[in-house]
Amino acid sequence: MSRTVAFAREQLRAPFTLALLIAIPALFVVSAAGVLSEFAGALGGSLAGDASVALSAGWAAAFISGALGFFQAASSRDADRRLALAGLGPVRVAASRIVASVLLSVVAAAAAFAALELRIDVAHPLHAAVAVLAFALLYLAIGVLVGSVIRAPLEGSLLVVFVFLLDAFAGPGMSGSPPAWAVSQKAADILIDAGTGIGSPTGDWVRLAIVTAGALAAAFCVFVAAARSRA
Amino acid sequence: MNARMTTATRLGFREQARRPLLLVLLVGLPFFFITRAIARTEPMPRLIGLPGGGEVLTTMKDVHGASMVTITVAFLAALCGAFVMRSAQSADRRLVVAGFRPLEAVLPRLFVLAAATGVMLVVSLAVTAMSFSPRSWPAFAVGNLLVGLTYACIGALAGVMLGQLGATYLVLFLAMLGTGILQNPMFGDGTPGGLALAFPDYGAGRIVIDGAFSGSFHAWGDLALALGWLAALGLAVVWVLRRLLRSAS
Question: How far is CA B41 from the centre of its chain?
Fold first, then answer.
């Protein structure tokens, strides 16, 4: 546990990082929600009203967590090599890093959800909260995957942004039929439904759980493999 | 430019050229996003405001075509600014310890950053030309160059003053809010106002719109505003970096 807290604190050492982690999701929801429905209309999508505000909270959590996951994995390589060599082992290093990232992602997701609650009266707040958290965890996993393979911050952050934009603008609300590779589509479906007062079918929840757990498991395995090869 | 600055500039370019993935992303990202965004946008009618008070009836597809170059260049230049400057800090400290004056280490980095912005701009304009033709290419290109350089400076400041994660959050959010929402005539009444006027890319963004939809240039005031912001941000970058390097020596 102390390792996890130390890893989380390591990311928050730089000035303003914690403030940005909380402020940006909230500001994103406030600023982007008003224009998302207009944007969706221009792309031929059907997103409107409270659904667009709800989706903006998911995107905010995703964007923050993706960058967070990338820097957790990429910037810690040298320290992790030393920790693994010192006897901690790659599995425990990976577990601590990912749990620390999950904790910070939960903070970002909570900020996005709080902004959503302040902006609109969410019909299904629990559904919305779970979907926002799923967005955050999915992108955390994507960030860790990229950060385990690519170390350079510019290239890695560009790649995370690339995946995010590709997924977000092909996803539900933005296009008529989201492609199968749009990883966040079930989280988006549930979030849009929660915003518009519709309960999501059980199949959507099951698929969301499988995709999110699968993404986190893949991130863990790739991180362990990367830490092992470094050790 | 003296011999030491020439050497530092050459080394700076060589350092960037050793990053093949970066070059692929800087070319591939604009190509993918601009073509995809324009292709997917519906040709719905859209009335937008031009600098000088005029209005023009165009389509959402064309407005998106014009604004995607700006958004792409702003995002990429801001990230390049943040990480080129951060990665250069330790090397530049060594240069200063070896006898370079701080300014002789800082200016070559700015040349590299301006060149990277220029490359992204050329790629973005070439991609845009396949599906959208602005009424005035020179004004359109100059406006986008000013947006790119402005965000490159913002990125450089953020990269030096905040950590990697904080800089990434800040520059991506500012680029999204500035070019993607506030200055974007796809939204609202088609004429940016209010908070948009306080953003450093306001003047440059208006030049882009003037170049995109007007055959004659009306944005002289916006050009002065954009150059003023760029000069202020450029001086701030030089001042902050010189101070850091002086403290290192």
Answer: 24
Query: With 80 as the cut, is the pLDDT of residue A12 above it?
Result: no
Task: Render pLDDT for A122-152 as a digit per residue (tens, 0 to 9).
Answer: 889 999 999 999 999 999 999 999 998 998 8
Q: Average pLDDT of B44-62?
A: 91
pLDDT score of B223 more than 90 = yes
What CA–CA distance (Å, rounded) separates A8 from A112?
A: 19
Q: What is the C-alpha separation between A161 and A150, in angstroms, rounded?
A: 14
Closest CA to A148 of A61, A81, A100: A81
Distance of CA B141 to the CA centre of its chain: 11
User: Is there a contact between A40 and A173 (Cβ–Cβ < 8 Å)?
Assistant: yes
SS3 B55: strand
Cβ-based contacts under 8 A for chains A and B: 112
Question: Checking DSSP bridges between strand B55-59 and strand B45-49, what pairing results, if any?
Answer: antiparallel
Cβ atoms of B112 and B12 closer than 8 Å:
yes
Q: What is the DSSP letter of B197?
A: G
Residues of A in contact with B44 (CB under 8 A): 41-42
In chain A, residues with a C-beta closer than 8 Å to the C-beta of B88 are none
Say whether B29 sits in a helix, a strand or coil: helix
pTM of the model: 0.89
- Give the start-to-end residue ranges of the domains of chain A: 2-230
A158–B76 CB contact, under 8 Å: yes
CB-nearest to A14 from B42, B166, B184 is: B166
Q: Enter the ipTM.
A: 0.84
DSSP annotation of A199 = P
Q: Per-residue pLDDT for A231 more than 60? A: no
CB B74 within 8 A of CB B147: yes
A39 touches chain B (CB under 8 A): yes
